Structures are given as structure tokens and as C-alpha cells.
């Protein structure tokens, strides 16, 4: 009885072990197959570390989501790869009426949807009208049509848009144009995932597979009007861990990666076959001074320190910051010290204070000016306000953001050097939003990604963006309300001459700088890397010094060329075979060890 | 003496007796308790994420992109956030009763879909890891207890405790770097694996190795320790002496007499752990980009995607409640002493 039990048990184990061994060994034979199949075409594999929310172009709002949208759907115009000025895309030319209210776009002829249907002006008008009539369709890009009066297509090649007021941003309409013959059948846009592949589009790539949180696959659009891309497939692989994505690049599992941290980027410096691209980015980090938050009706809200209402105090404090230290110590050297609101990557709109206007790092001057402003040093070296209370400021930041966490101690130290006490409060993103929109801060970290058109970034500091009388609906960044700034903002929005508009945009930035309601601390580089043994000729934007991924366009992906002789998809091929074989060996060894022990133990017990 | 021997041998046998009226009442009581717990989870989920949670979700969703105040109001109305809190709660409960957990803010998809989509990968990863960790932990625990203080015992307990205390993130990254080219850096499969079943299965198995090993390494210690200590308690029991006196080999004494009696605490732990299986392993899934519920939770927290968080809380809470209920019911089957009380 006993022996039967044991042998049954052992039989079970043996069978199990055999199954495991076979299961592990079989792959060793079959894993060659996927690689061979993949060699049917060249694939550019990109690591995506940011969230793709949706591939429905009307709903997608994350940067990664809209970047994929740009590959699938063209806009009327796009942005030049060299200097990011608007250039023709679906619209090959355009004209404006005398009163600047009517825009007539001529749609390129011969463009086809990826299912072979011709693209006409009707599709364009359909897209805009859908957004005008359906509030769900306005979710992602509603701001572009907010000033539209009507959109019509008098013939197959002409689109006429009438706006309510003159609008200088009519060549920066980042609205994906969708096919009417597909989308007119969509009854519920909110519930439409748009991932029934292949998804009909008109961009350089066609979506062929969408697996949420795993991968997104595109095939080259051979009929793309600019000409087919130079390779067959573009795969985005989702990584939630940038360190793992960096490893994937080193191992050759992916060919292109962006959004690297300085540490990850430096770790790639000695990696074989990897080219680094320390591109200029379009993001900036800033520190806001609460200038006395108020609603758009002028009623004060929040509890900002009254000292900061004095522009002289703000200007003095700004001189206490050493921006070069932020660049070298926080950003690892991969950033530029801040100046105007529009980052230097947008050459024509960027403004940098010249030597006479610049507030350089000068604690002595800051001390002098704070003394003069009526904040003398008191007990313990802390300055006192007119009310005799010590000058203590709260510094609000995002607890998940490396920049805020690392910069906060510097700010605290610098302000302490000029006699201002700082309490650091790092809280969740939504709490930061809540606190800042209620004006309940003194100093707060903020940061934005700018677009080729400067309108949006400038609009964040106008009077009307402040919350309404109930304290709700505010979209202001700084609570600034300055008639001169507002006048410059309004003028630039109505100025259709590019050079004159750029001049107004720069003046607005200078005004913002002088008022010191916010200090732009630095412009982050966008750190990218790619496998030079697999792909080359990535068109950066702007050129030189720009990015490959996260462009205002599709140039980086579109222009890439596979390197001759790089047919094998990197070093990952031998991986499965060796890995699984090694796994099998380990499992077998453990099992053998167990059996040996068991046998020895049993025989010992038998004696 | 004979009688004692017989009962000592009996317990592992499956119960033959008919459950009396007591069983029905016991089951009903447990079911009622579970229902109340589930209800509290639903209420807690709402209170946590709709009432207590700081910040306006619409502000978070429109942050860093152009959106006028009118657009924000439009969005607020569409999400039902313009209604009063009691009204929102009623909407939420009404939806739940129809199996509708609302729509994810981030993904514009039904929360139920998102959760079901991520359930499979999580069950695969955490299920496999739990089963393997249980086997490994129990086996090492039994071995260690049986030869308490031996070099084997000290080494295995030491290693288990070290791994148990190691930060999961760090351990995962270390494994990832140390194994070089052997295993993929993340995800559940390569995008270009052929769609046939065998290739897919092999690819998934290949991707499963590292996250699974990491997870086993950090959790098996608890099974080991519980099993080891509960077996140690039985070690000096009289019935073991009796079994030895009957002439049974040491191996059999352990397997047929000591272990079954020491198994109950470990069973409790296994069931508790099974309840937590669905909640996945947030850290491991994030390190290895494994598209399961843990990763979904991480993403929902990042946004913050309140309906998704609410749905996940209900699912996680529900899983623990159901598993505890099962454990309670199974106890009666496994241990006659529970039945008798």
C-alpha cells in the first residue's frame, strides 16, 4: 500500500517534470520562427513610456496619443521640420479675405484614404462641422474651433472657414482630418474606440493593431501622398519603466527611445551601436509667485502672502535664484537656463533678456532691494514685513516630479540666503491643481510644453483666464492681470504679418519677465537615443538640434531609413532560445537534486 | 489508545457526514457577512474617490492643454460631475447593479472593459507566482521545521527573509540587468510574434519568467515561515510518537501525520493571498510593464482616473471577500473541529 502510494506520487512528479522540460524545450526549437516571420519586412520599434489614452482622434489628449494620431491623420497644415513654421499638408494653399474673417483653403488633389477612396474638401468640412455640432467631438481639440462661425465645402477642392473674430492661428489648426465615409456612420463618438483595424486614415502610417498597454502597430501607407515611408512597419512598445526601456534599447529589443532621465541617458554613452540625441525640448519649468490671486471680476481669492503683491519684492526674489545651478545640478547639464515663456526651440518666437534687462544671479542685489522694499532683517536673519511678522513663504510642488523634488531644496537655500524662510509642500498633482487654482499658494512649481504657435502659452496669463465670480473655471497659470500684457496678447492674436506678430509675442514675454509673476527656471532637453545599427536618417525638428519623437509633425518616423544589412531585428533573437534552454537546465537540475535527496533520505530511513 | 490512533489518522479523509441544519445557518451567516462587507466596499469606494479625494478631476484632465472654461463645464456635465453628491452616488449604484462601473476618464472606455482586459495577464502572472511560491514555501518550510536548526534550515530561512525584505523594484531591475539578453525587458509579448497559439504561448511564457521569478522571490518567505512554525508546534505531539512507535518511517510520519495537522494556518494564508491575486502586484507589473490590473491601478492613480480607481477598489475588495468566504466554507470541510464548534 505504502509503496504503491510513493511510486504514484513519484510518477506524478516525474510526469510533471517531463511536461515542464518538454514545455521549455519546445520553444527552443520554435522561437526561431517569429524572427524569421518578422524579417518579412523592416520594422522600426519604438519604446513608448508615456500613456496612450485613445486612438480616437477626437478624444485623445495625452501627448503620446496625439503623436500616434498625427501618424494616422493629416492636418490642413503641418509644421516645417527645419524651423516649425506652418507649411502645406492637406491644404496646398490658402487665402484670407480683406476683413480677415474668411479663410479659403485649397485641398490637395489626388490624395486618397488608405482604403482607396479619394479625399475631398467634403471630408475636411465634415470633420470641422462634426466638432461644431457634437460636444464630444470637441473633447480633444475644441479650442481650435471655438472661434469658428461656419465651415463649408463649395466644391471638392475648396474649404471655406468663417471665424467670428480675426484669428492669427488659422494655420496652426492641429485637427486630424477624418474620412466622412467612416465617421458619418459613427453614432456614439464617446464610445467609439477607433481600433477596428486597419483604421482608414491618410497619414504616412496605417494603424493595424492596437493592444492597450502592450503595443500599437502601424504599417507604412504605400499610397501616402508625400511618398511611402522607407520601411514596412512601425511598432510602438509600451514600457512603464524607463529603466527597463533603456535596457530594451541596449539589448536591441527596441530601436528608438525618448524621455530619458539624465542618469539613463548617461548610462547609454558607452552602449554599443547607440546614438544619443540631446535634443532641445519644448518644455519649460517655472516658479510662480502669487501676485495676489483674484477672480476675473477682481475679487481677491486665496491666501497668498501679501509681500508678493509688490513687484519689487518679486523681482528681488528672482535675483536670488541661480538658474545655471539648476541646469547643472538638477538637469545634469541637459537643459538651458530660463528666460522668456517660449522655449528657444521655437526660434522665431523665443525671447531672451539681453544683458541690460536680465536679472542675473545676484544675492547682494536681492538683499539690497528687499531692504529697500520695506522688509528689513529681524531675529535670526529672517526678514520682517511691515506687520512685524517674519517673511515665510510656502513652496508648492508635485511630489511625483523629480524636478520639483530636486529643485525645492535649492530654492529654499537661495531664499534663506536673502533672509526669506521657505516651507516646502510637495503634494499630489491634483492637489497642486486644487491649491493653485484657488490661489492658496505663495510659490509654486509649474511647467508647460509649448506649441509652434505661441498663442496658448501666452493666453495662460491673461485677465480673462482667471476663475469666474464663483472662483471656478479658471485656466490661468499665474493669476496675472496686467492691461499692458493683455493688450500685447490681443494684438499678436490679430496680427497676420509673421514678423510683426513675432515682435509682439516677444514684447509680451518681456512684459511677463519684468512683472516677475513667474520665473522660467529652465528649458528641458528632450533626451533621445536610437540604434544606429538598425536605423538612420531620422529627420529632427527643428533642424539642427531638435527631436525625433514627440515632434509637431511626423518627420522623425517618416524619414527614417533602415541601415543596409540590418535585417536581423537586433540582438534579441538568441534570447528566447538561450533563456528558455537555461531555464530548462535549471529546472531539471533542481528536480534531479530533489530526487537524489529523496532517494538518499528514504534509503537512510529504510535501514 | 486505538481509538486515538484512528482519529489521528482520520482527519485528512474527505468528510462523509451529512451537514446538519447548522451548516445551512453557518453558510447563510457567512454569505450575509460577505454581502455586508461588499456593500461597505462600494460605499467606501465612492466616499474615497468622489468625496474625500482632493482636486477637481476636470482640472486634472484639462491641465496643460488649451481648454476654455466653457469646455470644462461641458466636460463636467458629460461626466455627471455637475450633479449633487447624493445624486452621483445613486447614479453610481444604479450603474453597478447593471454591471456598469462608469467610463474611464483617461481611456474613454467602460471601466468594466478595462478591468476585464487586464484581468487575464494578472491572473496568469500572480496566479502562477502564487502557486509556485506556495509549493516552494511549504516544501522548504516543512523541510526546515523537520530538521530545525540544521544548516539547511538556517540557510533557507535566511535566504527567504533576505528576499522578503528586498525592495521589489530593486530586485526586479537587478534581475533584468543580470540576466542580460536572456529575457525580454518588459511587456507580455513582442508585437510581431505570429498569431498562432504555440508561438504566442511560448512568447508569453518567455516574458513571464522574470516577473514571475521576482514575485516568487519576494512572497515565498511568508509561506515558508507560517508552515515552518505551525509544523514546529506539532513536532512534539504525542500522536507523532505513536506513529513512530507503529514503525512508520520518518518520511511517512511527516507526510501523513504531522503536515496535515499543521496545514490549516498555511491554508488561511493561501486563501488570503488568492484574494489579493487580482490586485496584482503593482510594483512587479510596473517594473516589467506587465499589462495587468496592478499596472492599470498605477495608471489610474497617475491620472487620477476616479471611476477606474473606484471600479478597481470594488473588484479588489470583492475578490478578497469572496476568497475569505471560500476559506471559511472550506475550513469546515478540512477540519472537523470547526464543524463541531
TrEMBL record, chain B:
The keyword Aminoacyl-tRNA synthetase does not apply. The chain crosses the membrane at residues 31-53, 123-142, 163-184, 204-226, 262-288, 308-331. Keywords: Cell membrane, Membrane, Transmembrane, Transmembrane helix, Transport. Residues 119-331 form the ABC transmembrane type-1 domain. Pfam families: BPD_transp_1, BPD_transp_1_N. It is found in: Cell membrane. It is a multi-pass membrane protein. InterPro entries: BPD_transp_1_N, MetI-like, MetI-like_sf. Belongs to the binding-protein-dependent transport system permease family. This is ABC transporter permease. The lineage of its organism: Bacteria, Bacillati, Actinomycetota, Actinomycetes, Pseudonocardiales.
Amino acid at each position: 500500500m505504502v509503496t504503491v502510494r510513493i511510486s504514484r506520487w513519484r510518477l506524478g512528479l516525474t510526469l510533471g517534470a517531463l511536461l515542464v522540460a518538454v514545455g521549455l524545450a519546445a520553444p527552443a526549437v520554435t522561437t526561431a520562427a517569429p524572427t524569421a516571420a518578422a524579417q518579412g519586412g523592416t520594422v522600426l520599434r519604438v519604446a513608448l513610456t508615456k500613456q496612450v489614452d485613445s486612438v480616437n482622434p477626437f478624444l485623445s489628449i495625452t501627448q503620446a496619443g496625439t503623436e500616434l494620431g498625427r501618424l494616422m491623420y493629416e492636418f490642413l497644415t503641418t509644421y516645417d521640420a527645419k524651423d516649425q513654421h506652418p507649411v502645406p499638408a492637406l491644404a496646398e494653399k490658402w487665402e484670407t479675405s480683406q476683413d480677415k474673417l474668411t479663410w479659403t483653403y485649397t485641398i490637395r488633389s489626388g490624395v486618397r484614404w488608405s482604403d482607396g477612396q479619394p479625399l475631398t474638401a467634403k471630408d475636411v468640412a465634415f470633420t470641422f462641422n462634426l466638432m461644431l455640432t457634437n460636444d464630444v467631438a470637441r473633447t480633444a481639440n475644441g479650442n481650435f474651433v471655438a472661434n469658428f462661425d461656419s465651415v463649408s465645402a463649395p466644391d471638392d477642392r475648396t474649404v471655406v472657414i468663417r471665424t467670428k473674430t480675426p484669428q492669427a492661428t488659422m494655420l496652426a489648426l492641429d485637427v486630424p482630418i477624418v474620412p466622412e465615409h467612416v465617421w458619418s456612420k459613427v453614432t456614439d463618438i464617446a464610445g467609439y474606440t477607433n481600433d477596428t483595424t486597419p483604421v482608414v486614415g491618410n497619414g504616412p502610417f496605417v494603424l493595424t493593431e492596437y493592444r492597450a498597454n502592450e503595443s500599437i502597430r502601424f504599417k507604412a501607407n504605400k499610397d501616402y501622398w508625400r511618398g511611402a515611408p522607407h520601411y514596412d512597419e512601425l511598432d510602438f512598445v509600451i514600457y512603464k519603466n524607463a529603466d527597463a526601456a533603456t535596457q530594451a534599447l541596449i539589448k536591441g529589443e527596441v530601436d528608438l527611445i525618448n524621455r530619458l532621465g539624465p542618469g539613463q541617458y548617461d548610462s547609454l554613452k558607452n552602449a554599443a551601436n547607440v546614438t544619443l540625441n540631446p535634443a532641445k525640448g519644448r518644455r519649460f519649468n517655472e516658479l510662480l509667485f502669487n501676485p495676489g490671486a483674484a477672480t476675473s471680476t477682481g475679487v481677491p481669492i486665496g491666501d497668498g502672502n501679501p509681500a508678493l503683491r509688490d513687484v519689487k519684492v518679486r523681482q528681488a526674489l528672482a535675483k536670488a535664484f541661480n538658474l545655471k545651478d539648476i541646469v547643472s545640478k538638477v538637469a545634469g547639464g541637459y537643459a538651458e537656463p530660463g528666460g522668456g515663456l517660449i522655449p528657444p526651440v521655437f526660434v522665431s518666437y523665443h525671447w531672451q533678456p539681453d544683458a541690460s534687462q536680465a536679472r542675473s544671479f545676484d544675492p547682494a542685489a536681492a538683499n539690497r532691494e528687499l531692504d529697500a522694499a520695506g522688509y528689513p532683517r529681524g531675529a535670526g536673519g529672517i526678514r520682517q514685513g511691515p506687520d512685524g511678522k517674519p517673511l515665510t513663504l510656502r513652496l508648492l510642488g508635485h511630489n511625483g516630479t523629480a524636478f520639483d523634488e530636486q529643485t525645492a531644496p535649492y530654492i529654499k537655500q537661495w531664499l534663506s540666503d536673502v533672509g526669506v524662510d521657505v516651507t516646502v509642500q510637495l503634494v499630489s498633482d491634483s492637489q497642486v491643481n486644487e491649491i493653485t487654482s484657488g490661489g492658496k499658494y505663495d510659490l509654486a512649481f509649474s511647467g508647460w510644453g509649448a506649441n509652434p504657435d505661441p498663442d496658448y502659452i501666452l493666453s495662460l496669463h491673461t485677465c480673462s483666464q482667471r476663475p469666474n465670480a464663483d472662483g471656478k473655471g479658471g485656466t490661468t497659470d499665474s493669476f496675472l492681470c496686467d492691461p499692458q500684457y493683455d493688450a500685447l496678447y490681443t494684438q499678436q492674436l490679430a496680427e497676420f504679418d509673421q514678423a510683426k506678430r513675432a515682435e509682439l509675442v516677444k514684447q509680451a514675454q518681456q512684459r511677463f519677465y519684468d512683472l516677475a509673476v513667474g520665473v522660467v527656471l529652465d528649458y528641458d532637453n528632450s533626451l533621445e537615443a536610437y540604434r544606429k545599427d538598425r536605423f538612420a536618417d531620422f529627420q529632427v525638428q527643428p533642424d539642427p538640434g531638435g527631436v525625433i519623437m514627440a515632434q509637431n509633425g511626423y518627420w522623425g518616423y517618416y524619414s527614417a531609413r533602415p541601415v543596409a544589412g540590418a535585417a536581423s531585428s537586433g540582438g534579441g533573437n538568441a534570447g528566447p532560445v538561450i533563456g528558455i534552454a537555461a531555464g530548462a537546465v535549471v529546472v531539471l537540475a533542481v528536480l534531479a537534486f530533489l530526487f537524489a535527496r529523496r532517494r538518499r533520505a528514504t534509503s537512510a530511513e529504510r535501514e | 489508545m486505538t481509538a486515538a490512533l484512528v482519529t489521528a489518522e482520520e482527519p485528512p479523509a474527505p468528510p462523509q457526514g451529512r451537514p446538519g441544519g447548522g451548516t445551512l445557518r453557518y453558510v447563510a451567516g457567512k454569505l450575509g457577512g460577505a454581502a455586508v462587507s461588499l456593500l461597505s466596499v462600494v460605499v467606501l469606494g465612492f466616499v474615497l474617490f468622489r468625496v474625500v479625494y482632493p482636486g477637481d478631476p476636470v482640472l486634472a484632465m484639462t491641465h496643460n492643454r488649451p481648454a476654455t472654461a466653457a469646455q470644462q463645464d461641458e466636460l463636467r456635465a458629460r461626466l455627471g460631475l455637475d450633479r449633487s453628491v447624493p445624486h452621483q452616488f445613486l447614479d453610481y449604484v444604479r450603474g453597478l447593479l447593471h454591471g456598469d462601473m462608469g467610463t474611464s476618464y483617461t481611456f474613454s472606455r467602460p471601466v468594466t472593459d478595462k478591468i476585464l482586459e487586464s484581468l487575464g495577464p494578472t491572473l496568469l502572472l500572480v496566479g502562477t507566482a502564487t502557486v509556485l511560491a506556495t509549493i516552494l514555501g511549504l516544501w522548504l518550510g516543512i523541510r526546515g521545521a523537520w530538521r530545525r536548526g540544521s544548516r539547511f534550515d538556517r540557510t533557507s530561512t535566511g535566504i527567504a527573509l533576505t528576499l522578503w525584505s528586498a525592495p521589489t523594484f530593486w530586485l526586479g531591475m537587478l534581475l533584468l540587468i543580470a540576466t542580460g539578453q536572456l529575457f525580454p525587458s518588459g511587456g507580455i509579448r513582442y508585437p510581431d510574434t505570429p498569431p498562432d497559439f504555440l508561438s504566442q504561448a511560448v512568447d508569453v511564457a518567455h516574458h513571464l519568467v522574470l516577473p514571475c521569478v521576482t514575485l516568487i522571490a519576494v512572497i515565498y518567505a511568508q509561506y515558508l515561515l507560517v508552515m515552518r512554525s505551525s509544523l514546529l508546534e506539532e513536532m512534539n505531539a504525542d500522536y507523532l510518537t505513536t506513529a513512530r512507535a507503529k514503525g512508520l518511517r520518518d518520511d511517512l510520519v511527516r507526510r501523513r501525520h504531522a503536515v496535515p495537522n499543521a496545514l490549516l494556518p498555511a491554508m488561511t494564508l493561501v486563501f488570503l493571498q488568492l484574494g489579493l491575486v487580482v490586485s496584482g502586484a503593482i510594483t512587479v507589473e510596473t517594473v516589467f510593464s506587465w499589462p495587468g490590473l496592478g499596472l492599470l491601478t498605477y495608471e489610474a492613480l497617475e491620472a487620477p482616473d476616479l471611476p477606474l480607481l473606484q471600479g478597481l477598489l470594488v473588484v479588489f475588495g470583492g475578490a478578497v471577500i469572496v476568497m475569505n468566504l471560500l476559506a471559511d466554507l472550506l475550513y469546515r470541510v478540512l477540519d472537523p473541529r470547526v464543524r463541531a464548534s
